[in-house]
Task: structure prediction
Amino acid sequence: MRSILSSIFALAAAGVVQADGWSPSPDITELDQGEWAGGFVGIAYGHFSGDVDLSQGAAPSLPLEHSTFATGFGGYSWQTGRVVYGVEVAFSAVDQPFENGAGTNRLSEMVDASARLGVASEDLMLYGLIGASQSTFEALGPSGQTEAEAAGYRLGFGAAYRLSDNFSVGAQFMHREFQDVDYDPLAAPANISSDSFSLRAAFHF
Result:
C-alpha cells in the first residue's frame, strides 16, 4: 500500500510541474559550447611591419617596409568544455624589404609552428598562440650579398567565428622576434622584430 501511495504522489507532483510549465534548468554541461575539435586548413592575407637592428644597438634600427603577405596554415584542435587547445603550422610567402644604405635587403619565406589555447562560446572562439618561427634573411653586408636562416619565436592572439560546421573566418595579430642572426661573418649579428595582422578563412573537418 505504501508503495502504491508513493507512486500516486509522484505522478501527482509530475502533473503539477507540467501544468505550471516549469521544468528543471538544463545541466550546464549540456549548453551549446560550440564544436571546435578536429583538423583544419586555411588561408590568410595580411600586412607586415617591423624593424632590423644591424649594429646591436650601436645605430638606429632600420624599418622594414610595410608589405602584404599570404599564408597557408593547418592544424588540429581538441576541446574540453569551453577550453580549446591545439597546434598549428603555417607557411607565409613574405617579402619584407629594407634599405641599409648599400642596397635592398629582405625577410622572406616564413615558417611557423605554434601551440594554441582558447575559449569557445557557441560559434565564437578567442585564443592566444605561442611558438617558433623561421625565416630567410637576405642582406648586403661587408662580405657582399649573403643569406641566413633566422630562427626565433612568435606570440599573438586572434578570434575565429564559425559560419557553419565546416567553415570559419577570423582575424589574428602576431609578433615575431629573431635574435642574433649571423648573416655575415664580418658583421655584427642582426636582431629583427616584426608585427603582422591578417584576415583568415578555414575549413574544418
Q: What stands out?
A: The beta strands are 38-53, 62-80, 83-99, 104-121, 124-141, 144-162, 167-181, 190-204.
